[in-house]
């Protein structure tokens, strides 16, 4: 499992939340890479860290994008 030690879950302002990288951004990028590699098991594992499998489909941690 890859650790993300320097990434923050949330920045101090709303502007920084949408213009800087956070943990959800890194997880989403890893999910995209696994999709390109066709590693579907890892796609499901990584995406479950951000979006739950049942409604409401919003991130449970970090910056909430709606």
Q: What percent of residues are in strands? A: under 5%
Share of helix, binned? 40-55%
Specify the structural class. Answer: mainly alpha
Largest sheet properties: none
Count every beta strand, where a strand is a DSSP E run of 2 or more residues: 0
Shape: globular
Overall mean pLDDT stands at 77
Amino-to-carboxy terminus distance: 28 Å
State Rg: 12 Å
pLDDT under 50 segments (min length 5)?
none
Helices and strands, in N-to-C order?
A: HHH
Number of helices: 3
Could you write a compact summary of the structure shown?
With 66 residues, this protein is mainly alpha-helical. It is 42% helix and 0% strand.
What attributes does this structure have?
mainly alpha
């Amino acid at each position: 499992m890859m650790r993300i030690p320097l990434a923050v879950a949330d920045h101090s302002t709303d502007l920084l939340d949408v213009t800087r990288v956070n943990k959800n951004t890194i997880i989403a990028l890893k999910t995209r890479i696994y999709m390109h590699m066709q590693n579907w098991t890892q796609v499901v594992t990584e995406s479950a860290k951000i979006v739950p499998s049942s409604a409401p489909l919003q991130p449970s941690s970090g910056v909430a994008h709606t």
